[in-house]
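Q: what sequence does this backbone want?
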């Protein structure tokens, strides 16, 4: 059974840092992702937990299905909207990801996790200008955030991130 204690923010931190693995030999990248984002978003329901597990396994289609089920059951489930946005990002459905991020922001405000994930979404699209704007807004909330710092470094290096299964 998927643990309900695993935070969505931690999952997204791992996913975001997966892109950093492509340039792991670069000494400019921070190495300790474990303390970069606090686990603030517990699994809100079983569909959310299943969506997280599928996203972590690299099954974006199945993750999208579970997160969609979760938000259809509870339109106020911010954690599931964030997960749905990430699944859409992985599927290359950026139009739908934008809608899901907008809904999550409407429910939770512009949190560190949402801003960083949205920046990462723009990074995946190749839109460096918008990615940097989101990352800067995330750093304004937490200037020491390693995940966001690494994503900015990827952007500066001109690297396009590649998501892999988190460790």
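A:
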């Amino acid at each position: 059974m998927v643990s309900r204690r695993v935070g969505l923010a931690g999952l997204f931190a791992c996913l975001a840092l997966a892109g950093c693995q492509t340039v792991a030999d670069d000494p400019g990248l921070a190495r300790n992702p474990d303390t970069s984002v606090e686990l603030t978003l517990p699994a809100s329901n079983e569909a959310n937990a299943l969506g997280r597990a599928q996203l972590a396994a690299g099954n974006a289609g199945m993750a999208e299905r579970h997160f969609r089920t979760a938000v259809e059951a509870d339109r106020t489930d911010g954690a599931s909207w964030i997960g749905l946005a990430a699944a859409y990002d992985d599927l290359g459905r950026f139009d739908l990801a934008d809608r899901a991020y907008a809904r999550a922001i409407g429910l939770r405000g512009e949190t560190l996790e949402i801003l960083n994930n949205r920046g990462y979404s723009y990074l995946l699209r190749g839109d460096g200008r918008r990615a940097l704007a989101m990352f800067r807004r995330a750093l304004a909330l937490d200037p020491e955030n390693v995940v966001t710092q690494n994503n900015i470094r990827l952007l500066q290096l001109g690297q396009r991130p590649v998501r892999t299964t988190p460790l």
